[in-house]
Amino acid sequence: MILSTLPLAADDTSLADFGQDPWWIILIKTFLIFLILVLLTLFNIWWERRVVARMQHRIGPNVNGPFGLLQSLADGVKLALKEDIIPKAADKAVFLIAPVLAVVPAFVTFSVIPFGPEVTLFGERTPLQLTDMPVAVLFVMAIASIGIYGIVLGGWSSGSTYSLLGGLRSSAQMISYEVAMGLALVAVFLYAGSMSTSEIVEAQDNLWFGLILAPSFVIYTIAMVGETNRAPFDLPEAEGELVGGFHTEYSSLKFALFFLAEYINMATVSALATTLFLGGWHAPFWIDELYAGFNEGYWPVLWFFGKVLAFIFVFIWLRGSLPRLRYDQFMAFGWKRLIPAALLWIIAVATIRAISLEGGIDRQYLLIGIGVLVVLFLALFFFTDEDADGDEEPAAAPAAPASGSFPVPPMPAGGAVRGAAEPLTFRSSSTVPAGEEH
Fold first, then answer.
1. Non-local CB neighbours of 41 within 8 Å, separated by 6+ positions
2. What domain range includes position 22?
3. Three-class SS string for the chain?
4. Torsion sign across C-alpha atoms 285, 287, 288, 289
5. Which NCBIfam families does the UniProt entry name for this protein (predicted)?
6. Residue 401: is its pLDDT beyond 60?
7. pLDDT at position 70, please?
8. What is the rounded distance in angstroms from the CA atom of residue 106 to the CA atom of residue 51?
9. Average pLDDT of 261-273?
10. What is the tens place of the pLDDT at every residue in 219-231?
């Protein structure tokens, strides 16, 4: 009886602890998650504009509220009050449902993300997590896939060719990089022995998986940028080609929902990366060795959101630093680089894990083998196709244009020229020779 009255330790959370909360605690948790995500979105928009402005030697929002913090709220109110336009050729029912299909899964995925250990909330002992399940990570991937339907249906129902092309681009991109993202998580499952988010966090109490599974961490980090359609992978929003992407025809609050879904998805993939690779809510840099209370109570919430904001800063940094990739190069990188590398790494991790558990090989040889695999992985990752232009036959001369047609410039001898264009040269004389005046 004495032991049963003692508070649970921070790492004693198990799947049996979920589903025991009173209904009002569940409602409070749900409301807090919704409120946190909305406020985090407003902050992230302000933060992105401020950081990019700093990188570009501008000021950024600084008028509405202290340091411009209310600028995002003002923009949201402005969007909500704008005229709501529905194109005449649009499928109205699907056009209205698509933004909801995009934003609702973004909120639902946070239901299995652990924010901290067990705490006392209004006199009730409860984990800082809405719920958990044995396949929680697969639940996140499945719910996130539903958001693709919102993007595809939004582009298709608009009745616009540009929106349709943007929706197809976005769906192809998200599906392709979702494969690489899922494969990157297999190594985590092998080491944690579970797909439950709370148990994966508990398995990283001593050593983060981002350190011992660095290739998986790198693959996931690249895939999560492609999954969220963020720069330099924001190809569905290529303004010069597709105007504004799948949401070209949207306005007012429906456009704001797509905008909200994008930023919540950024927070979702960042929170999942924190949970699976950076120890979740555990204190960073092992500072809990100095004071064990850093991993108890509400301190872990601070560590968790600190790691999430670090990932979001990387998103912002990439947007302000890198240009947009070409679409064929981007898709080839996902299918020809990330996915094969992830498959090879899974085989290597499974082999190493089996050997380690059986204890049939010396640890020194095991570390040497890991080093060789890392070198091979990097060689595969950064290997580029050889230039085979020397083996190709020269391109045939273009046919002469038909009479009255628009003149077509001739192709260079030997095919298209790669690399920089020939430098232009101008005559140094500032006077125009006689006979050349117009």
1. 72, 260, 263, 264, 267
2. 18-326
3. CCHHHCCCCCCCCCHHHCCCCCHHHHHHHHHHHHHHHHHHHHHHHHHHHHHHHHHCCCCCCCCCCHHHCCHHHHHHHHHHHCCCCCCCCCCHHHHHHHHHHHHHHHHHHHHHCCCEEEEEECCEEEEECCCCCCCHHHHHHHHHHHHHHHHHHHHHHCCCHHHHHHHHHHHHHHHHHHHHHHHHHHHHHHHHCCCCHHHHHHHCCCCCHHHHCHHHHHHHHHHHHHHCCCCCCCHHHCHHHHCCHHHCCCCHHHHHHHHHHHHHHHHHHHHHHHHHHCCCCCCHHHHHHCCHHHHCCCHHHHHHHHHHHHHHHHHHHHHHHCCCCCHHHHHHHHHHHHHHHHHHHHHHHHHHHHHHHHCCCCHHHHHHHHHHHHHHHHHHHHCCCCCCHHHCCCCCCCCCCCCCCCCCCCCCCCCCCCCCCCCCCCCCCCCCCCCCCC
4. positive
5. PRK06076.1-2 (NF004741), PRK06076.1-4 (NF004743)
6. no
7. 92
8. 25
9. 92
10. 999 999 988 888 8
Split into its structural domains, the chain has a count of: 1
Which whole number is the average pLDDT over 167-188?
Answer: 88
In a domain, 416, yes or no: no
Radius of gyration of the chain (CA): 27
Q: Which two tokens stand for residue 198?
A: 């709370």
- Which amino acid is it at 56? Q
Q: What is the pLDDT of residues 108-126, one digit of tens each?
A: 999 999 998 888 888 888 8
Banded pLDDT at 16 (limits 50, 70, 90) = confident
**Residue 281 pLDDT exceeds 70:** yes
- The owner of tokens 């190594």 is 187
Q: What is the pLDDT of residue 407?
A: 66
Q: Confirm whether 149 is domain-assigned.
A: yes
Query: What's the pLDDT at 104?
Result: 92
Task: Count the neighbouring beta carbons within 10 Å of the beta carbon of residue 37.
Answer: 18
Q: What is the number of other CB atoms lying within 10 angstroms of the CB of residue 260?
A: 23
pLDDT score of 420 more than 80: no
Both structure tokens of 349: 């991790």
Query: Phi and psi dihedrals of 89, rounded to 5?
Result: -85, 0
Whether 265 shows a pLDDT value over 80: the answer reads: yes
Q: Is residue 10 predicted with pLDDT exceeding 70?
A: no
Q: Is 121 domain-assigned?
A: yes
Task: Establish if 74 belongs to a structural domain.
Answer: yes
Residue 313: pLDDT band with limits 50, 70, 90: very high
